[in-house]
Amino acid sequence: MLNDISRFRRFSRAVTSEVGALDTSFLGRGRPLGAARVLNAIGQGRTDVAAIRAYLALDSGLMSRLLRSLEEEKLIELTADPEDARKRRAVLTPAGEAEFSVYEQLSNERAEKLLGTHAHPQALLEAMDLIASALDRNRWSFEEVDPRSQTARYCLEEYYAELDRRFEGGFQVSLSADPDAESMMRPKGVFFVTMSDGLPVGCVGLKGTDKGYAEIKRLWVSPAARGLGLARKLMAKTEEAAREIGIKVLRLDTNKALPEAVNFYRKEGWTEIDRFNDDPYPDFFFEKIL
Amino acid sequence: MLNDISRFRRFSRAVTSEVGALDTSFLGRGRPLGAARVLNAIGQGRTDVAAIRAYLALDSGLMSRLLRSLEEEKLIELTADPEDARKRRAVLTPAGEAEFSVYEQLSNERAEKLLGTHAHPQALLEAMDLIASALDRNRWSFEEVDPRSQTARYCLEEYYAELDRRFEGGFQVSLSADPDAESMMRPKGVFFVTMSDGLPVGCVGLKGTDKGYAEIKRLWVSPAARGLGLARKLMAKTEEAAREIGIKVLRLDTNKALPEAVNFYRKEGWTEIDRFNDDPYPDFFFEKIL
DNA sequence: TGATTTACCTGACTTTAGTCAGATAAAATG
DNA sequence: CATTTTATCTGACTAAAGTCAGGTAAATCA
């Protein structure tokens, strides 16, 4: 009925009025939108004036005045950065915290109102994750983390759950050769998590071994972030780290229930090799010389 | 990882920056945003000054000035409404059409850019339809149309395709008792389509018969609009129309592969009755006395 | 038909946002 | 230590958005 572009633009219109409504709801507190945005940026934990300026794309003069107006309202306190007295750091006063939480409440109420009246809020949220991930694709951050950290565990659990859904007969980590955390941390290996505005959307582990090669493990991309080239970026990061560590040979294994993964490795220049372990799950084995 | 509200707000942030970027792209034409918005409202076919004012939530004074600035640019022409000379109607001049289409092009390019770089644009569009439908739920319009019209045919094709996916052994309209168009139009019956900002999201037919009852046929709600109470509204519209026509008894049939439909009819006060036709598809038969 | 309402216009105003050229002081550089 | 760079501030602006109290002419009402 509507073509693709019309559908996109219908979405834009719907969302513009929703976002506009959020903006105007921020005006109910007797403060211009600019000041409210700065207050919220500080409330979110941004303390560096320069960082806030970059985040909100504000002119330095305008920023200076907005900060002063919040200071005069006694909502924030500005102090010189102890390391560099040219820089200024902004923190909320208790009154500022209270005011910030009112804005938080306004945002949360809008969210609850929309989600609460929908019979399938999870489907709605998945759709939102998909769109947010697509829009945010140029702001991914790749973080090297402990594979036991909260973000890493979140990714791994999502990964295991997907394998369990897709493998014939399911998947149990305990039956698989689960690498211990140290083998996926420096100096042996690494573990990367990709964050997209607070949501982990992908991960990959590089597991060092004493057999003359390292293994790629737990390459996972969230359903919301598929089709955006994230797997390739994660692999590039990992290969870069492998070179730093001094690794020359990379190996990995995968399962026939994951045809897009098998395809991906072939396309990315991996060579199929013979089985090199006795893990019960994999059907395919690949190698890449760095 | 993120809770529901945080996910919603991540979506809002992503979309705010996208919408902001669209807004600023509108500034490349040397015209303030307010004037650009009015020009676009007129280009979309809104001619009534009052309607544009309501749509854009503008003060009458501001509106008046914006219209004049567009008039001075010779992009629009203002004429008195022939039926009520107090009212003014705005239409684009040829130059205005050209300028409007530049804005259209800017919007379309943004849409193409995002969709074109995604490996699964259809999934993205489905997500957008879902969200747009949820946000637009308070602006549904219910239109009584010819079941052979383009919008009706679109709904029916979507409906048949879904039955074909869900019925064991598929679904073929030709095997079913396909009602002829006249039986679903006044004075015998009606056919309603629900529009959500240009996209048909649901339909229902009321088929008059000469057997002392009328039948509810082709009740369909788009996947994007499920969970928003649309089926109930469509049924209410249909019952209202049935009363107008003078129908006292409503009947319908449905299939065991559509358990949510069976549930819905039970919940909405329909009584299960014996088979009343020899259509090969239905398993359940219901009746409602008006 | 006179009074009232409606739809839009005009003028005078304020607020907000944004720009830009210096000024200032701390830090980094040679 | 003088010079340059960096981070922020200040003052003097402009443009855009928005507000509000009348004003005008057409339509509607009593």
From TrEMBL, chains A, B:
InterPro entries: Acyl_CoA_acyltransferase, Bact_Acetyltransf, GNAT_dom, HTH_MarR-typ, WH-like_DNA-bd_sf, WH_DNA-bd_sf. Keywords: Acyltransferase, Transferase. SUPFAM superfamilies: Acyl-CoA N-acyltransferases (Nat), Winged helix' DNA-binding domain. CDD domains: NAT_SF. The keyword Acyltransferase applies. Residues 143-290 form the N-acetyltransferase domain. The lineage of its organism: Bacteria, Pseudomonadati, Pseudomonadota, Alphaproteobacteria, Hyphomicrobiales. Gene3D superfamilies: 3.40.630.30, Winged helix-like DNA-binding domain superfamily/Winged helix DNA-binding domain. This is MarR family transcriptional regulator. The keyword Acyltransferase applies.
